[in-house]
Amino acid sequence: MIVGCGTGLRKTGWQPLQRERLLATPGEVLVQVGQQVEPDTIVARSTQSGVVIVVNVAHELGIDPQEVPSAMVVPEGRQLEAGNMLARSHGLFGLGRGECHAPMTCRVVSVSAVTGQVLLQEPPTALELPAFLAGKVAEIVPQRGVVIDSAGSWIQAAYGCGGESWGELRLGVARPAEVLTGDAITAACAGKIVVGGAGVELTALRAAVSHGVAALVVGGMEAQSLHEFLGSDVELGSGRPEESPLPLLLTEGFGALAMDGTTFEILRSRQGDRASVLGLTQIRAGVVRPEIIIPWAGKGLTTSEDAGLGELSPGRPVRLVHGVDFGARGVVAELPSSRRTVSGGIRTLVAVVELTDGRRLTVPRVNLEPVRGG
Amino acid sequence: MKGTRWQEVVSQTRPVETDRRLVYLLTDCGSTTTKAVLVAPLGDSYRVVARGEAPTTVEAPHADVIQGVLAAAGGVAEQYGRELLAADGTGFRKPATQHGGCDKYLSASSAGGGLQMLVMGVVRSLTAASAERAALGAGAIVTGVIAANEERLWAEQVATLKRLRPDAILLGGGVDGGSTEQVIRLAELIAAASPRPRLDRSGKLPVIFAGNCDARSTVTELLAESTELTIIDNIRPVLEVENLEPARQAIYSVFMDHVMACAPGYRGLLELCDAPLLPTPAAVGESIRQLATTRPGDVLAVDIGGATTDVFSVCQGRFVRSVSANIGMSYSVAHVCQEVGLDAVAHWLPMALPTGELHNRILNKMIRPTTIPDSVTGLIIEHAVAREALRLALAQHQQTAAGLQGIQISRQVAEVFQNVNPDREPVDMNRVERIIGSGGILVNAPRPRQAAQILIDGLLPSGITEIALDAKYLLPHLGVLATTDPTAARQVLANDCLLIVGVCVAPRADSVHPGQFLAHCSLTGACAYNREHDLLAGELISLELPPGTEAILRVEPSVQVDMGVGAGRKLERAVEGGDCGVVLDGRGRPQPIWSGSADDPEVNRQIVNRWYRGLDLYPGETW
Questions:
Q1: Å from A35 to nearest chain B CA?
Q2: Strands A340-341 and A347-348
Q3: Among candidates B337, B331, B344, B406, which has minimal Cα distance to B370?
Q4: What is the pLDDT of residue B116?
Q5: Which of B153, B180, B217, B374 is the best substitution to test chain A (most A C-beta atoms within 10 A)?
Q6: CB under 8 Å to B426, separation ≥6 — which residues?
Q7: Global ipTM
Q8: Is the pLDDT at B204 greater than 90, yes or no?
């Protein structure tokens, strides 16, 4: 039986990992099966169509739309440089002659005798796709990209922005409940992924940008600070990735939330290793959570924890991901089959959880995250 | 059922066989949950006899919607105490006998994101607006609107077309016989962008052309090869006429052939269904239409979801649906707060919060959308957001429901004498006699009166308005049932669907000062609950009238106060009680007189605190 629960962000000390790296548009694959790749190895390349713009030639030359095809001095498909003549009107008895020129380097896509518009397209731009994580090419997807096999530690975060990055892991705090301050970000952090705890000061964020830090990973941060840093509101509903001066990942969420102890321990134990981070959060139309991948060979395995498929059962270790006890851990003691009223008054399916501090709480199942280990 | 047209669905609205009344199994496959109900004759009328639900299984690892449907039906069978599933477990036992089974299986679906459409027209307020209304009326989510007369650059419009990846495009534009230039320009735009469909990525994007008939041949030349082009009658053949039905039929065919056909397991589901599958919003709309026929008066219904909010209205017999794509209580909660500002949300809170906490809580709800409040503070914050979400959604609905723009309105002599204002909002809250709320935030409210107050504060009804909830989430099921057996649907709507929460009495009074007498209100005919009260400006109280109790409500306003029938005119109506009784709202309409109190947060908190305590919304709480 499937028993629903919360978000179920996953974290593992070590596990085999596989990632598809695919181009948005067909192109050329540059690596071979079995080849070892690093995060910055370009595995595939394609071209992106140039921007299409419209020039209303009829309007510019003061002629009727149906006269535009005969006014064109270049045919459809022809490449033009900026300033090349596009069309010319002869005027009446040579009076009122006019010329129309290409506004940029482009190709003539189409000429319309109905609207008098000419479509021009800028030259395509090259798109290079890096491997993102260290590993071995397991499969080639013709014209699209590759599948990369790797293994190591893997942590999903609650929120991330700023896209992909990679670098050496470096702790910026000593404990998961510590705030990452501006002083902790120095020139030695350049190109590194810096790990913080229960928050990050705005000065640390700005220092990270100025020192060229590869990415920041912290437990939580104040929504208002993020707003000031990004210069805009966080809003994931639109489905567009949020832009950020650097990749920034929050493993827990917003507010002064300490980084989960297990997460911090995984990151602490791999300090100095090269890691890859994805700062992207998509919560609609296909969930994408930010992630940290630390490839390593698998010896000396430290912690293994996996939220699994979101199933709850008596005896299952869980973690609270909502409310004043956010982050508290415990074990499911009971799973009542009927709905119960929780604090606040809502009737919902609940779990009775025995926390590690001895308290026994009745918690909405959707506010729990199953974990492995205590 | 593939390719079935809307007209065929509607044509099934005919009496069923009279020799034996049928048993219906109905499901609604939502994005997260599939809900099933069994509707059967019980005594003289149809009733819901069992319900069940299961997670929707359209995503991996199941990737087969039927699994969730069968699991939900299994829950129904368990409650019903009889078998519903066929022996091989792949379908339903038919026909219904005394041992179980059903006669017909019908379903609605919004799984997989529903039907997402982009609409285009020459002028934003004319043909683009008509195209938007046609798409919304057919149950689509309109993800974007492009008009030839907008200020966006061509390149931006092409980029929008490429980025949105809709399921289909509805292209309107131009009146028949008029200029073709601008609508052809829009067709050129589609050709230049060559957008791909959202789901069937190897296929062509469906484009429905519903514009100037003189442009058909050119549009065909431009789009026939690169898109799946369908040409239908002009959505706006002349400026004064809007012709939405052909577009609605074409959109419905796209939903069946291009969206449902791509969703995992839907081909099998269509085989199981005894009538065409409906998009969930279209099914809800059908229920609202049916409700509007049961008694006079305009109806307004809202469905606040996690990502979107649907608003339906039937005003003076005209049905309108709008969808606010980014207004919702989880995925879109941050967008609501961004639109209205955090101060507007804080305005509804009776307690002070530490700096930044409200912002943090809102964003945490967004990134963990399935979490629910486990404290009164958390609950009140969500209820505050819901009030603002409703306010935004109604404003957008008013725009969608606006009459045809760009035409001259000839006023009847009688209208002049009745002082009918032609610029009045299309949904006139004075005329709305019933408000129906649906969606988790309302239906799961611990006390129905909390939901009622969210609806009152968010929608600001005026006059006398009944407040009800779709407490069992039956509107989608009954909408799809209405296409096959409208009598059964109406009976279940009357018997099982709506939970009457109470009545709101809100006089219109533009320039009154706090404490001024507004109206004398009295309840009679309800024995122990007969009461009277002089309603003062700024006051918000309720008269107890328990569920199932009927009474006569009489309102005698002062000379400058209007109950929707003219200043100073008395109003009397039979009302039914509910959890919130009769709410007497003297805060003023259309603009509440207390809105200026936001300048002083502490004063505002005291006012809100007094209201919430007076209505016993959150018992036992003091702030």
A1: 30
A2: antiparallel
A3: B331
A4: 83
A5: B374
A6: B313, B315, B320, B398, B401, B402, B403
A7: 0.85
A8: no
**Averaged confidence pLDDT in chain B:** 86
Q: Say if A249 is an interface residue toward chain B (CB within 8 Å).
A: no
- How is A308-358 classified by DSSP, letter by letter? TTS---TT-EEEE-SSTTTT-EEEEEE--SS-EEPTTS-EE-EEEEEETTS
Asked if B373 reaches chain A (Cβ–Cβ under 8 Å), the answer is: yes
Closest among B505, B442, B447, B489 to B469, alpha carbons compared = B442
Q: Nearest Cβ partner of A114 from B61, B180, B331? A: B180
* Closest-CA distance of chain A to residue B443, Å: 10
The three-point CA angle B229-B235-B236 to 5° equals 140
CB contact under 8 A, A224 and B218: no
Nearest CA in chain B to A256: B360
Name the closest residue on chain A to residue B71, using Cα atoms.
A1
Q: Is the pLDDT of residue B528 over 80?
A: yes
Asked if pLDDT for residue B419 goes beyond 80, the answer is: no
Check residue A26 and report its DSSP letter.
-
CB contact under 8 A, B446 and A347: yes
Element (H, E) at B613: helix B601-614
Among B153, B188, B379, select the one facing A345 at the smallest CB separation: B379
**Residue that has been written with the tokens 């107050």 in this structure:** B453
Could you tell me which chain B residue has the CA closest to the CA of A49?
Answer: B193
**How many other CB atoms are found less than 10 A from the CB of residue B319?**
16
The 10s digit of each residue's pLDDT in B552-597 is 999 999 998 999 888 899 999 999 999 999 999 999 887 676 655 5
pLDDT higher than 50, residue A44: yes
Q: Are strands A145-156 and A79-80 parallel, antiparallel or unpaired?
A: unpaired
Interval A219-231 mean pLDDT:
93
* pLDDT band (50, 70, 90) for residue B300: very high
pLDDT at B461: 95
Q: Which amino acid is at A164?
A: E
Look at B422 and B126; give whichever has higher pLDDT: B126
Residue A5, pLDDT score: 43
List the single residue in A254, A322, A346 with the smallest CB-CB distance to B360. Answer: A254
Shortest CA distance from A227: residue in chain B? B359
Q: What is the DSSP string of B132-191?
A: HHHHHHTT-EEEEEEETTSSS-HHHHHHHHHHH--SEEEEEES-TTS--HHHHHHHHHHH
CA distances from A296 to A134, A150, A172, B498 (A): 9, 8, 22, 59
Residue B8 has pLDDT above 80, yes or no: no
The pLDDT, as a whole number, for residue A285 is 55
CA distances from A27 to A48, B34, B196 (A): 10, 41, 18
CA A75, CA A84: separation in Å to the nearest integer? 13
Shortest CA distance to B86 belongs to which of A343, A205, B95? B95
Give the global pTM: 0.82
Q: Do the chains contact at A323 and B180, CB–CB below 8 Å?
A: no
Give tens-digit pLDDT for B178-189. Answer: 888 889 989 988
- 3-state secondary structure at position B412: coil
State how far the Cα of B530 lies from the Cα of B542, in Å rounded to an integer.
Answer: 13
Pairing status of strand A215-221 against strand A248-254: parallel
**Binary contact (A223, B191; C-beta < 8 A):** no
DSSP β-bridge partners for residue A355 = A330
> Cβ(B567)–Cβ(B559) under 8 Å?
yes
Whether residue B95 is preceded by a cis peptide bond, meaning omega within 30 degrees of 0, is: yes
CA nearest B539: which of B563, B502, B564, B513?
B513
Contact B338 A233 (CB under 8 A): yes
Sheet harboring B141-147: ordered strands across? B141-147, B116-121, B168-173, B206-211, B228-231
Give chain A positions within 8 Å (CB) of B332. Answer: 237
User: Among residues A152, A105, A148, which one has the least CA distance to residue A129?
Assistant: A148
**A–B CB contacts, 8 A cutoff, strictly below:** 158
